[in-house]
C-alpha cells in the first residue's frame, strides 16, 4: 500500500514539474489571466463546464471568482453551467445530454465572455458542442485537458493539456492551474 501512495504522490509531482519546466505552458497561463481580467473589466462573465469530477472542479473554480480567493472583495461574475439540476435533467431528457452546455451558452452567453471547459480526454461531446456555440457567438474558450488535448484542441483559443494520461493526476493539475489563474486575476483586478 505504501508503494502505491508514494507512486501517486511522485507522479503528481512529476507532472507538475513537467508543467513548471514548459515555458509555453506558463505563457498560456499568463495569456489566460489577461483574457479573464479583460472579460471581467469589460462587464463580461466567465462560464465553466465539465462532467463528473471535472464538473466539481468547474464549480470549485467558478466559486473562487464569485466568492473570493484571498481578498475580501466584490464578487466576480462566474458560474458553472451544470448547477441548475432542473434545467440539466429536463434538457438531457427532452433533447440530449450532448446539448446541455451549448443551450445554456446560447441563452446566457454574450460576445466577450469566456467559456472554460474541463475534460480530461478533451472529447466530451457536450463540451465540444458548447465550444462550437461559443465560437459562433464570439466567446473565448479555454480548455483544460490531458496530454493529447483530444478533439477540443482544434476548437479552443487556449489549451492547457496537462502532460499525463491518468485522470486523477490530470485533475490535480487542473485545480493547480485554475487556482493560479484565480489568484492572479483577483490580484490584478483588486490590487
UniProtKB/TrEMBL annotation:
Any single GO BP term: carbohydrate metabolic process
First and last residue of the signal peptide: none
Pfam families: SIS_2 (PF13580)
CDD domains, per the entry: SIS_GmhA
Principal localisation: cytoplasm
All residue ranges annotated as the SIS domain in the record: 36-191
Binding-site positions, substrate: 51-53, 64, 93-94, 119-121, 124, 171
Keyword set, alphabetical order: Carbohydrate metabolism, Cytoplasm, Isomerase, Metal-binding, Zinc
Pathway: Carbohydrate biosynthesis; D-glycero-D-manno-heptose 7-phosphate biosynthesis; D-glycero-alpha-D-manno-heptose 7-phosphate and D-glycero-beta-D-manno-heptose 7-phosphate from sedoheptulose 7-phosphate: step 1/1
Keyword Cytoplasm: yes
Cofactor requirement: Zn(2+)
Domain of life: Bacteria
Cofactor note as given: Binds 1 zinc ion per subunit.
Any Gene Ontology CC annotation: cytoplasm
A molecular-function term among this protein's GO annotations: carbohydrate derivative binding
E.C. code: 5.3.1.28
Subcellular location: Cytoplasm
Catalytic reaction(s) noted: 2 D-sedoheptulose 7-phosphate = D-glycero-alpha-D-manno-heptose 7-phosphate + D-glycero-beta-D-manno-heptose 7-phosphate
Binding site for Zn(2+): 60, 64, 171, 179
Family: Belongs to the SIS family. GmhA subfamily.
Additional comment: The reaction produces a racemic mixture of D-glycero-alpha-D-manno-heptose 7-phosphate and D-glycero-beta-D-manno-heptose 7-phosphate.
Entry function: Catalyzes the isomerization of sedoheptulose 7-phosphate in D-glycero-D-manno-heptose 7-phosphate.
Protein name (database record): Phosphoheptose isomerase
Amino acid at each position: 500500500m505504501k508503494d502505491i501512495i508514494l507512486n501517486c504522490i511522485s507522479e503528481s509531482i512529476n507532472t507538475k514539474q513537467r508543467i513548471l519546466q514548459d515555458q509555453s505552458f506558463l505563457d498560456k497561463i499568463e495569456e489566460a489571466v489577461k483574457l479573464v481580467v479583460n472579460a471581467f473589466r469589460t462587464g463580461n462573465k466567465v462560464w465553466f463546464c465539465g462532467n463528473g469530477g471535472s464538473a466539481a472542479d468547474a464549480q470549485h473554480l467558478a466559486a473562487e471568482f464569485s466568492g473570493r480567493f484571498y481578498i475580501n472583495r466584490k464578487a466576480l461574475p462566474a458560474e458553472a453551467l451544470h448547477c441548475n439540476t432542473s434545467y440539466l435533467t429536463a434538457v438531457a431528457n427532452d433533447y440530449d445530454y450532448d446539448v446541455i452546455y451549448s443551450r445554456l451558452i446560447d441563452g446566457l452567453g454574450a460576445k466577450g465572455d469566456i467559456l472554460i471547459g474541463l475534460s480530461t480526454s478533451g472529447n466530451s461531446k457536450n463540451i465540444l458542442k458548447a465550444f462550437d456555440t461559443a465560437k459562433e457567438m464570439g466567446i473565448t474558450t479555454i480548455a483544460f485537458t490531458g496530454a493529447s488535448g483530444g478533439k477540443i484542441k482544434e476548437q479552443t483559443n487556449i489549451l492547457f493539456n496537462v502532460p499525463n494520461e491518468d485522470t486523477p493526476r490530470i485533475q490535480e493539475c487542473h485545480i493547480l492551474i485554475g487556482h493560479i489563474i484565480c489568484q492572479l486575476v483577483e490580484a490584478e483586478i483588486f490590487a
